[in-house]
Amino acid sequence: MRTRRGLCYPRADVCVDKIVVKRRDFAGDNMACRKRRRFTPEVVGKSDFFDALPDDLVVSILSKLSSTARCPSDFINVLITCKRLNRLALHSLVLSKACPKTFAIKAKNWTDSAHRFLKTCADAGNVEACYTLGMIRFYCLQNRGSGASLMAKAAISSHASALYSLAVIQFNGSGGSKSDKDLRAGVALCARAAFLGHIDALRELGHCLQDGYGVRQNIAEGRRFLIQANARELASVLSSEAASNVSTRSWLSWSPHPIPHPNHRHPSLPGCPLLSDFGCNVPAPEAHPASRFLAEWFGARGGMAGPGLRLCSHIGCGKPETRKHEFRRCSVCGAVNYCSRACQALDWKLRHKAECAPVERWLDEEGDGGEGNGAVDENNGVIAES
After folding, report:
1. For residues 66 and 99, is the Cβ–Cβ distance under 8 A?
2. Nearest-CA neighbor of 348 among 316, 319, 310, 314?
3. Is beta strand 328-329 parallel, antiparallel or unpaired with respect to 309-310?
4. Which residues make Cβ contacts (< 8 Å) with residue 177, sequence separation at least 6?
5. Are residues 261 and 284 in contact, defined by beta-carbon separation less than 8 angstroms?
6. Which of these, 291, 287, 318, lies nearest to 305 by C-alpha position?
7. Mean pLDDT calculated for residue range 312-321
8. How many helices and strands in the chain, by DSSP H and E?
9. Does residue 377 carry a pLDDT above 80?
10. In this predicted model, which residue has the larger pLDDT, 124 or 261?
């Protein structure tokens, strides 16, 4: 990377006339500055320490800022400060290290410029931008090929959330027909994501082994993975900032009353007890910015992705159906549907267990049944396809 040397930086004593600025070239002739300098009388003659900073040092500072930003405005405000910061903030090294919260764009603020910014970050090699833009293109903009390609690019770089999202696409045959399902590929992607520490992927893998879904049935191994997922869930909460604002005494027993959530935008979310009934009542995990974008995008459209298409009923998911009857549905009440067993299991303990009411018989809006009808096991909340 080429940087400017200090001797090449403009000197403060070069411009001495506020109207016409002159300096000498290497031949000793006078030449006028191409651009008029704007100086107030107070700063004329003083040196500009910002211009004295080398480019590589400024890029390093901006990389640290992009990797620790708490919201998009923390980074975007740098772009509108001055031309030099705008140029250096769009350096590929800075964009490649941007954290997920830098891309936490609200659906109501989605514009072509936001799309171009995410595309620029994805081209710079940022895996979070690849995953976020891939999810938006696949589900919101209905550009299936480009969206899946971006998620695959992130998955190749061992992005756990991208691997799990691709696994859900394989399980459901999203973007295609029912015959496009590839259960074995979904299990393989789940296993890779679980190895990288993705809790929902580990929970999904446990349900697949327990039910023999896409893999040879192994109930004992499936239960072991479910317990391991619960332990990781508790460990992640204890090590996160969410534990600082919630009393640990409330985790020791189940209570129907809501636990104060550290995110004040969702103060009424109840606690999410662990599936293995350890007796711990932990706060609901924070949703990924891409999932929040999907929920806001389709929420503004009446909670539907199209005629007859529904959203996953888990509050932290936001994935929509890409064809009718794609998601599994609770066979007890028929009022909720889920994109995966992990979402169903989490939502069962989070809220649906208290709301589910048996129905003698229920029919689809367009006809009898659907491709995802199954039975609900109240012990662990697993949906088994018929």
Report:
1. yes
2. 314
3. unpaired
4. 323
5. yes
6. 318
7. 88
8. 14, 10
9. no
10. 124
CA 302 to chain centre: 22
Per-residue DSSP letter, 361:
-
Task: List the chain domain ranges.
Answer: 107-282, 289-385
| pLDDT exceeds cutoff 50 at 13 | no
Cα atoms in the 13 Å half-sphere on the side-chain side of 1 = 12
Q: Which long-range contacts (CB under 8 A, 24 or more apart) does 149-155 make?
A: 150/122, 153/122, 153/127, 154/127, 154/128, 154/130, 155/189
Cβ atoms of 305 and 311 within 8 Å: the answer is yes
Q: State the DSSP code for 139.
A: I
Q: Apex CA 9: angle with CA 6 and CA 13, to 5°?
A: 115
Q: What is the DSSP string of 263-314?
A: STTSTTPPPEE-TT--S-EEPPPPPPHHHHHHHHHHHTTTTEEETTEEB-SS
User: CB within 8 A of 41, min separation 6: which ones?
Assistant: none
Give me the residue label for tokens 């070239």: 25
Mean pLDDT for the chain overall: 76
CA–CA gap between residue 213 and residue 79 (Å, rounded): 49
- Identity of the amino acid at 331: S
- For residue 282, give every residue at least 6 positions away whose Cβ sits within 8 Å of its Cβ, in sequence order, or none: 233, 234, 237, 251, 271, 272, 273, 274
| % the chain with pLDDT above 90 | 33
Lowest mean pLDDT among 132-136, 182-186, 310-314, 360-364: 360-364
Q: Topology of domain 107-282, per CATH? A: 1.25.40
Tokens of 180: 């496009």
Q: Any idea what DSSP says for residue 320? A: B
Provide the terminal-to-terminal Cα distance of the chain, rounded to the nearest Å: 59
* Threshold 0.90, pTM exceeds: no
